[in-house]
Amino acid sequence: xxxxxxxxxxxxxxxxxxxxxxxxxxxxxxxxxxxxxxxxxxxxxxxxxxxxxxxxxxxxxxxxxxxxxxxxxxxxxxxxxxxxxxxxxxxxxxxxxxxxxxxxxxxxxxxxxxxxxxxxxxxxxxxxxxxxxxxxxxxxxxxxxxxxxxxxxxxxxxxxxxxxxxxxxxxxxxxxxxxxxxxxxxxxxxxxxxxxxxxxxxxxxxxxxxxxxxxxxxxxxxxxxxxxxxxxxxxxxxxxxxxxxxxxxxxxxxxxxxxxxxxxxxxxxxxxxxxxxxxxxxxxxxxxxxxxxxxxxxxxxxxxxxxxxxxxxxxxxxxxxxxxxxxxxxxxxxxxxxxxxxxxxxxxxxxxxxxxxxxxxxxxxxxxxxxx
Length: 372
Prior knowledge:
single chain; 372 residues; alpha/beta; Alpha-Beta Plaits; Rossmann fold; 16 strands; 30% helix
């Protein structure tokens, strides 16, 4: 009898807990990124769970986790002395506008480099974007791998949105007498999917993609995406990736004379604006001191999803891969120690890109074209 009574009490207790839950679990959760002063330890992750939330991703590149918590739990977490900041997991989108026609690769003089055997051989370039149709006839030989952080699996194939495939083609389309040719047609191409088929993604996915690039020894990363919202965690990820030797290139944003968007706006990232075929600023381009380089970005023809399809897109999304591809050419052509610091790295590539740019607009670096 006592045993039966004890079992009944235990059963009722479990039911009561399940029905009542905690105050936190009943509240709507918000997707956030929690930054810590030091790398989070198990007890801190356990604290998130005890507050009724859950950890979505724990980073190695920065001392942070992406999580989902109620508002009350977030307020409680802010009081934890180990927590440096808590911010929304902001949404980023592609930076492409319209469809039309183009000659960006020839415009920046890549054929001369190709004819001299400089094609980016051995350089690892990661396209952090919507994923890529790596079965495409102009990309399949150069594709080497990647990851999908939208669905959290090792296959970044994308069959619907051509944005990432188009960006990849500007950089890496093969020199095979088919379709188009990329700026660096011999690079090792990697696709890192952080945007869904509608062209939207979260900062937590982008940070995970940047981290993947660092730990998989990428030389160049191109991000044709952006947001107007500042993110401390995304800034830290970019800064640490740059410090680790990765050259980060990003679309400056299609803000039509407005501000440069993030991540291009961070100091650790090269912000690339778009120009018309006559080298004038494209109307969709931003204006700001963060603009570092300008490249063709209107009516750019490149690879589309579908295995053998091609199409035209315009935007700073199309300008950025021209710079990323050029960076790959520089790296593969016996780069020198430009800044005389005793180390040949991404900083030398960045300085080389700046110095070889054709000055446009006002003499020297300006807010419209950067270095040109």
